[in-house]
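Human:
Care to share another protein and its fold?

Assistant:
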Amino acid sequence: MMVTEYCPMGVLVRDCKKDKRVAKCNQSIYALKNFKGDMFRISQDVFCRSTIYNSNITCMLDNLEEVIDIMTLNESASYLKSTYNLNESLDIIENQILDMIEDKYLNEIPLKEGVKVFNTIK
């Protein structure tokens, strides 16, 4: 679901009264259609805000690495804090990102051919 101040129905109806109690657009059913042909119902409230309903599950957590891959460490932390409404400080989030990166290099990314392994003490 998304709420927007933009009123696409007002553009279509063209004689929008900005009062949904008497407006023509309140008497019809509207929807947005995406490039796949999926339809998303739109409703309006009395303040001319539009609510777009989407029943498709959208979760960026599966693509989180791709999303933050092009960002700096600070940008990634800020993005995560604001997008997921995190209470942790940016420093803590940055440290957690660094821990995740370290874990990925230690456990998932294979060493290049010819690289010698040295044991390190933490």
